[in-house]
């Protein structure tokens, strides 16, 4: 993550003094008959992660539009990317796919939450 923090800081500066906060995190279930995919979108995060929880499915993965590529991490592995990168949940065609979606915010030192 340090490289992503560095890339996400203004002017490509260093991560010194910046805080990394978990904005949100939740489990997502993809099933062909229910929610097989998620349309193209961007996230309201500095950095997003999709952590694979299983591999008992066909299809799936995280599709990145600008890269024309689908990340297929194995169980316990993650796709880590800037939230502003357009992506989609590729269609799960068989079985059930579970992921943890995590959204991180990079907070500059002068904007740290108070309290």
What does this structure look like?
This protein is mostly beta strands. It has one helix at 2-8, and strands at residues 19-30, 38-41, 47-52, 57-59, 62-64, 69-71, 78-82, 87-89, 92-95, 97-107. The model has no long low-confidence stretch (mean pLDDT 88). The chain contains 1 helix and 10 strands, in the order αββββββββββ. The longest helix has 7 residues, at 2-8. The strands form 3 sheets. The protein has a 4-stranded antiparallel beta sheet with strand order 1-10-3-7. A 4-stranded antiparallel beta sheet has the order 2-8-5-6, with no helix packed on it.
List the helices and strands and how they pair.
Blueprint (H helix, E strand, L loop, with lengths): L1 H7 L10 E12 L7 E4 L5 E6 L4 E3 L2 E3 L4 E3 L6 E5 L4 E3 L2 E4 L1 E11 L8
Antiparallel strand pairs: 1-10, 2-8, 3-7, 3-10, 4-9, 5-6, 5-8
């Amino acid at each position: 993550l340090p490289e992503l923090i560095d890339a996400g800081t203004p002017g490509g500066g260093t991560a010194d003094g910046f805080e990394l906060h978990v904005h949100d995190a939740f489990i997502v279930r993809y099933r062909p008959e229910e929610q097989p995919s998620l349309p193209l979108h961007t996230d309201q995060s500095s950095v997003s992660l999709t952590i694979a929880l299983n591999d008992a499915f066909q299809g799936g993965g995280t599709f990145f539009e600008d890269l024309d590529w689908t990340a297929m991490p194995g169980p316990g592995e993650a796709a880590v990317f800037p939230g502003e990168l357009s992506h989609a949940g590729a269609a799960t065609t068989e079985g059930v796919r579970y992921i943890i979606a995590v959204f991180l915010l990079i907070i500059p030192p002068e904007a740290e939450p108070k309290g």
